[in-house]
């Protein structure tokens, strides 16, 4: 499980980000000040650092420098205020890998973190759930050692569930996630068809699914048996 180093002094933002990141399968170590951050770096290993530029006792640039000194290949993403172009340029010149401007959309942040992890080679690419093996690096899905052939949209749908493990996904949310990736029109009725087809391919008993569960009156979620690397 990738370990995120979150440096953010706003307690509410830090709390919400921690909940979001953990729901996405990340471990999170949080610090609220420059001093706390530099201290935390001493005894921990991180896969990516998410650092606010403005801290009450200094700034995130010093933390970025310390992160890169500990591990030059550890991705650093800066959180910056809207319109703070100087901070963005300074951070990138210091070796930061990316930045995201507040306020930001949660899915955009997760996508940026995922891109940074893939670029650094720290991204988890193999998962197993309910006897199903998914290798996102190769795009292969196997069950009991045999390849499961999924259409592009079925595979995308499975990845949406995998990246939102622990969360209940409404039908509207699933449609939003699939819209950009779909090569054909997807509406509420066709979503039902795709979920049925996916279950028929990956479940031992599609009539009693254990991987993709229906949450009555709400939507769907990944099964409670959990995901392992």
How would you characterize the overall build of this protein?
The chain is of the alpha/beta class and 229 residues long. The chain has two domains: 3-120, Response regulator (Rossmann fold, 3-Layer(aba) Sandwich), CATH 3.40.50.2300; 126-222, Winged helix-like DNA-binding domain superfamily/Winged helix DNA-binding domain (Arc Repressor Mutant, subunit A, Orthogonal Bundle), CATH 1.10.10.10. 41% of the residues lie in helices and 23% in strands. The protein has eight helices and 14 strands. The strands form four sheets. The protein has a five-stranded parallel beta sheet, with helices on both faces. α2 runs parallel beside α3 and α6 (152-163) crosses α8. The radius of gyration is 20 Å and the shape is elongated.
